[in-house]
Amino acid sequence: MRGFRLSSILTTVAVGASAALTNGRSFSYDGYKVFRVKTHAQPSVVQEKLSNITFEQWNHDVHSHIDIVLAPDQLPGFAELDLEYDIMHDDLGGSIAAESVHSSLWKRQAGGLSWFDSYHDYQDHIQYLQSLHDLFPDNSEIISSGSSYENRSLNGIHLWGAGGPGKPAVLYHGTVHAREWISAATTEYLTYKLVTEYKAGDRATRAALDKYDFYIIPIVNPDGFVYTQTTQRLWRKNRQPGPNGSTCYGRDINRNWEFAWDANPLGASTNPCSQTYKGERPSDTPENQGLDRLVRRLRDGAGIKLYIDWHSYGQYILSPFGYKETLYAPELGKWTKAAQYVSDAIRDSSAALTTFTFGPSGATLYTTTGAAPDHVYSIGRADFSYTIELRDIGKHGFVLPPELIRPTVEEQWPGQKVLWTLLDEEFFDGVGLLRRLDGRQSTP
Ligand SMILES: *[C@@H]1O[C@H](CO)[C@@H](O)[C@H](O)[C@H]1NC(C)=O
Ligand SMILES: *[C@@H]1O[C@H](CO)[C@@H](O)[C@H](O)[C@H]1NC(C)=O
Ligand SMILES: *[C@@H]1O[C@H](CO)[C@@H](O)[C@H](O)[C@H]1NC(C)=O
Ligand SMILES: [Zn+2]
User: Fold this and answer.
1) Pick from 90, 120, 151: which residue ends a domain?
2) Which residue's alpha carbon is nearest to atom 8 within ligand 3?
């Protein structure tokens, strides 16, 4: 991030129902462009050239391309580098403005799907969660996983089926990275479908919710999320002040988990100005402390069956370990198999034939320390623990147009329905799993 400073904006801007999403942000991306620079499997050559200009990098899977954001004054220097690239956003400011177009039709009540036709501000997300609870009052409760640095509650919803609460947990987190807006919509859509399909008597949904308690927290970084709406659209971290008088704000809550926090210098940054600043100590963000308390509470209760941290973008399904790319957990075979079936279900259900790449996080994508899936597996003892990176693979990146919300969230539902049927270990008796699934898939 270039030298952006906190102003008093946060406390003076009223976050109204639509004001927050219009173009009142103090950090403007007008004239900025986003390029996908091709690296042809030689990223270091391209990185060397790029070292001459100032940019913000969006992706870290740089084997075939590097996605970069350029300010207007950097464009001439970039042109001189004579690199091969595709344009992701020719006018980033315009793309961000287009995200804010509200459909006047959406209803805050959870009765329909119009909620998923546009992006929404924080207060509306809180109300939407409440309306999901109101749809399913005897089988759900609003929960809080503690508070953010700026004292917002990390609200979520706990759902259960027949026989009341107390079953093993399925835990979903969204929006740990503030700019990854599609992850809030996805976790909300999955909640909406769980509630409505359960009530409609859908067999697979009933089976899942009768067997597991779902804990879904769509926005685990509320301060960062509000900041992306009031001030700077591409903010990622929380909004905690930097240490030792640093003028840079924010810690990456997803580099702040205790397990293997300091295990690999490549996995996070010690620089408070970096997008991946890990904090001064493990779990020294209030957001992480609250989330970790819930993880340990669920572990010590009926246990955690499945954990998913929802992110964007890149279309990946990633399992532990992130902190060391050569370390394979004993469960890697079943995690990878399950991820393959999720990936197949998404592809087969989507008009766009969306494909997801899957595998262990460190080896498949890049090294991360202090990231959630490693911790929730190792400390939380989750049977299955994933990061899912949603759409897309580099056309729009973080700034996904509103008309793509619906297809992006909808294709995750069949993926999760398949995954829930795989959580039971009896499905993993060698070839039995394959035979059973292949049999089901060949049924018309
Ligand atoms: C970097 O910039 C300097 C000074 O502007 C210029 O002399 C040099 O050729 C540039 N290097 C590359 C790789 O473009
Ligand atoms: C959050 O609340 C605590 C306790 O009420 C208070 O001490 C603190 O100053 C608040 N923090 C912010 C950023 O408002
Ligand atoms: C902040 O100061 C402490 C104590 O001197 C030091 O251990 C730590 O590394 C410093 N952090 C940064 C980011 O400079
Ligand atoms: Zn992310």
Assistant:
1) 90
2) 280
pTM comes to: 0.90
For atom 3 of ligand 3, which residue has the closest CA? Answer: 244
What pLDDT is recorded for position 441?
Answer: 38
Can you read off the two tokens belonging to residue 42?
Answer: 């030689």
C-alpha distances (whole Å) from 129 to each of 100, 134, 303, 391 are 21, 9, 24, 23
User: Over the stretch 10-27, which tens digit does the pLDDT of each residue have?
Assistant: 222 333 333 334 456 789
Query: Domain boundary residue among 47, 66, 90?
Result: 90
Confidence of residue 74 (pLDDT cuts 50, 70, 90): very high
Summarised one tens digit per residue, pLDDT across range 272-322 is: 999 999 999 999 999 999 999 999 999 999 999 999 999 999 999 999 999
| Residue 360 belongs to a domain | yes
User: What atom of ligand 3 comes closest to residue 272's alpha carbon?
Assistant: 13
Are both 35 and 115 inside the same structural domain?
A: no
Atom of ligand 3 nearest to the CA of 280: 11
Residue 444 lies in a domain: no
Together in a domain, 29 and 170: no
Residue 316's DSSP bridge partners are 357, 389
Catalytic-role residue among 389, 403, 411, 426: 389
d(Cα 93, Cα 89) in Å, to the nearest integer?
Answer: 9
CA of 52 to the centre of ligand 1 (A): 6
Ligand 3 centre distance from Cα of residue 244 (Å): 6
Please give the average per-residue pLDDT across 189-196, as a whole number.
Answer: 98
Pairwise CA distance, residues 143 & 226, whole Å: 20
Residue range(s) defining the domain that contains residue 291: 106-428
Whether 59 and 147 map to the same domain: the answer is: no
Residue 217 lies in a domain: yes
Distance (angstroms) between ligand 1 centre and the Cα of 234 equals 28
Specify the CATH number for the domain of residue 75.
3.30.70.340
With cut-offs at 50, 70 and 90, classify the pLDDT of residue 109: low
Residue 150 annotated as catalytic? no
How far from 152 is each of 95, 182, 226, 237, 239, CA to CA, in Å? 29, 20, 10, 15, 12
Do 239 and 382 fall within a single domain? Answer: yes
The answer to whether position 437 is within a domain reads no
Query: What one-character DSSP code corresponds to residue 100?
Result: T
Establish whether residue 242 lines the binding site of ligand 3, counting it when its CB lies within 6 angstroms of any ligand atom: no
